[in-house]
Amino acid sequence: MSQQHNFEGIAEYSDDERKLLLRLAHRAIAAKLRKEELDTSAPSTHLAELRGAFTTLHRNGKLRGCIGYIQPLYPLYRTIADTAVAAAFHDPRFVPVALGELSELEIEISVLSPPVPIEPEEVRVGRHGLIVSLGQARGLLLPQVPLEWGWDREQFLSETCHKAGLPPDAWKHGARLEGFTAEVFGESQATTPKVILP
Q: Domains of the chain (ranges plus CATH)?
């Protein structure tokens, strides 16, 4: 999957850091399945910074789970371990991952910038992820999603409303919009990411 820049337009995480986080996600899922303890010591001060992130699982090219924290609540390395386990076992759209699937899982990590209010006309497909909220309803789509589906800006806005369980035009009628960027990296692209410039 492609890699998205951070606010400065450059990759924040090195090749080694990306590989370490991807390995950590795999180890966390395997440890849970095998009922083993996972080493949760901080690998570096950089990876111990508080960051929001999502971990996405694919199997045979199909989505197998995706869970994340929008807000920077925990150190990044812990966030990745926690969201990997949650994506594997607690995504309500899927049955829990089985031991026989471990070797077939492909992992993608999205490290998020803090969300900020955004106007519909400011949304840039391929740069922004979106959060739409109205009352108790809330939906989020990552920056790579509209690229994967070929959506334009209006469809991206509408689909994020749909994710929230709202009418597709709720973004025109009082729903709150927040945008964020993400640095996204996955298995085969861990060392050769495609950077989408602002």
A: 3-113 (3.30.700.20), 116-180 (3.30.1490.150)
